[in-house]
Amino acid sequence: MNVAVDNPALEIHDLTISYNRRPVLWDVDLTIPEGAIVGVIGPNGAGKTTLIKAVMGLVPAGSGYVQIYGRPLDEVRERISYVPQRESVDWDFPASARDVVLMGRYGKLGLFRRPRRADRDKADECLHRVGIEHLGDRQISQLSGGQQQRVFLARALAQDADFYIMDEPFTGVDAATEAAIVEILRGMRARGRTILAVHHDLQSALDYFDWVVLLNMRLVASGPADKVFTAELLQKTYGGKLTLLSKVGNLLQKEEFPTRET
Amino acid sequence: MNDFWIILIGVLVAATCGLLGSYLILRRMAMVGDAIAHAVLPGIVIAFMISESRDSIPMLLGAAAVGLLTTFLIETLHRRGMLQIDASIGLTYTSLFALGVILASAFAGDVDLDLDCILYGEIALAPLYTLDIGGVDMGPRAVWIVGGALILVLSFIFLGYKELYITTFDPAYAAIIGVSVSLWHYLLMGAVSLTTVAAFESVGAILVVAFLIAPPAAAYLLTDNFKHMLLLTVLLGSLAVVGGYYLAAWLDASIAGAMALCMGLVFCAAFGLYRRRLHIASKSLTDQQLAARG
Amino acid sequence: MNSLIEFLTFDDPGVRAVSLGAMLLGIGAAVVGCFTFLRKRALVGDAVAHAVLPGVCLAFILVDFMGSLGWTDISPKHPLALIVGAFVSSWISLRLIDYISFKSRIKEDTAIGLVLSVFFGIGILLLTLIQHGSSAEKAGLNSILFGRIAALTAGDVLLFGAVATVLVFITLMLYKEFQLMSFDEEFAAVTGLPVRRLELTLTTLTVLAVIVAIQAVGVVMTAAILITPPAAARYWTERLPVMILLAALFGALAGLTGAYASFAAPRAPTGPWIVIVLTGFAILSVLFAPRRGALARQLRQRRNAGRIRHENILKALFHLGEQDDDFYAARSSDDILARRPMDGTVLRRGLEQLRRHGYVRREGAAWALTAEGRMRGARITRLHRLWEVYLTQYVGIAPDHVHDDAETIEHILTPELEHELEALLDHPQIDPHARVIPQKHG
Fold first, then answer.
1. Do A213 and A219 contact (CB within 8 A), yes or no?
2. B65 near A CB under 8 A
3. pLDDT in tens, B31-60
4. Which of A11, A238, B31, C388 has its CA 20 to 30 A from that of B104?
């Protein structure tokens, strides 16, 4: 199942991504609608994080292209924000929660300009929106896992983007934070924002997401959550690897073959 | 007067290196800094050979380019040569350093540069080489060179504060919002190379490494605020310079060595304070928990 | 040149002893270094080497002081005294690195750099103290910085050579355990190996190897003799025993270089020459090693590209045959180019090469498939279409998206994978675009 939409927020066309010449995602082709909360779901090693990194241009695409709001990434960078996995940064870094949130304003400030009063106010407002306005001055290592996740979310909010990409936003957070984050995401959706989140918990997925992308080395399905969550498609997603595909991938790496002829 | 100049040169080196070192240790690139500090040697020797003097600014820049080349070689060996990063660092810097030592010993007669001073510099002699413009004595040359490097580094950090900060903390996010991670990486490495070259002949490779790493490491333990960390780094580095100078004078031993020792002592003190603070924090936490339970 | 010939005859018993000692020393460091390398601890080895300096100086000062009191009459430069001093201070430096990075937010690389530079600075401080002091034997101690084999007596060299031999012996005795530990420490612990104790042993061996190697390379460049031989050897083999053997060979040759350097120029440091020779081995390995080397990889990629070009031409001719239902008719270059656009010169050269291999015949200005060429073209076409079937049926990709992918995969599928693919798809006859899949013996 691959439901196509008109005027998509995100279009991925025939995307193949390789690490060290070894394809980890094959021929992904999908569209997702604007103003939806979209979950990217699949087993470990399915290529979920790889997919969103490719969307953001952090890993080069072997073939195919990505368009956001009908344009290539570089033309719409200002409209995109990212909430990385919590483990991806060093929380011992000498920074306060407010410092991190303020980073969300850097892109708009451009080179050489320092954050002004308005940027600080915006940062405080975003801290407030995620419910940790009282922790602005606290060093980030002294925050709980849930609070750290909220800081990251506040930073993304401070960016005032239209398209939000999140890597496992619910991992390692307490129930209260999880509920709060969902609430915030729904508020964002109400204002027409689009959210693409990697998620691994099937239980909650149906509640959280309007649209679901099932992934396992290739696209299994993309469509409205209630239509995609069928036993058959889930079995296809979680039912083990495609051994032939892995073997060919290994061979491509070993022989140092190009992923695409040029 | 000599005391003053030596201490001033030391403080200038400590400040310049410490500021850059703060970024290096947060980026987990301390050892790349170490590699650069050793690997600029062939650049310096060649620069001396060609210019036959110590004053030429273009030659200093040329030598600094070797530092940048080191970073590039380390990354190329790692990425394209498929060599693990630690071995890549070790291999690159030992090779370049060996080349430098060979060049230095081969041309020792022609160039005013001896092997020992490569390692521990000649900070005691630095005030003797003075800068002379139109017959006017402008004070020690090293003060001008290292001072110039400090001004460059200060303006670099002032202008690029945001970008350096964000590419250090979260490079992936920086890339998303359009900050070029590799540009700032190479700018930083360029600054480290330039500083190393500027400081090299007055304080030697080993003190450069100590100044790059020890004061920032100590400051990192004492504060959670990055701006305070930069400030504290400069202060602690200067403290070690002053202490080291008088220790060396008292012992009649290497000034660079004594400064490195003092830097070690400063770090030990910072480490002690840090552990104590941790201990108190964890104790008050258990107290709170006990109170909550009771 | 004369000195090289003179050296290589090994007539001089002094030369023989020094050469043997230096080679043993290189071998010892390289063999232990293999495990340091595999455990990704190269920079720790570097720190250990720098930390040797204060220990050596302290030992000198202590023994000299005891001598001045008349308690002992051994020379403060006695190698045993220096080994003990070096051993103690390197051990302390290692414990400190671990302690600092475990007990605080300081990361390991910072801890290494910190300990390395501070210990070395202290060493320099002590060294200058000794040089400014009154000891009668202070001369020559600073040859430890850049290595100077010539500064050693034949007895010293043999002692260090003996230590190196013991190192190699112990390493080989514990080979199995070290191998497992370097590969997967957790698994090693689960299988009941005394990982902690083995690690301690390996660290001790590393420290000893460093101390021994310093005599030849000097403190600053010791990392090279420990790490560069294994790094170079790694390019030539995937097997650990071969790697160790090769590393030992590189180490031995480097040691020999050092011995020669000290013979040719007794007053110059030997360290840099050894390092340069080792770097030479490493560069040769990076460039020319058979599988992992840059040149081999470049050649492999070019060969792949050539194969892809050839197979594409055969495939185009085969498609033209399908179209006209006549596989052996001659076709002009333009016909082929119309079927598959490519550079005209590339096509001409490709056809010429294919002719030499017997896949095509030349008929005037036109080209025709031979029976062999037709078989090969049919195989590529079959693989292409099989892969398209696989992608649509198993990977769930739309039929209009499978072509590009199959264009690559058709060239790489092995006969085994082909067989597997056919069995999995149950020998399909038709591809997703309703074209007939050519059969193996059709």
1. yes
2. no
3. 999 999 989 888 888 887 777 665 567 777
4. B31
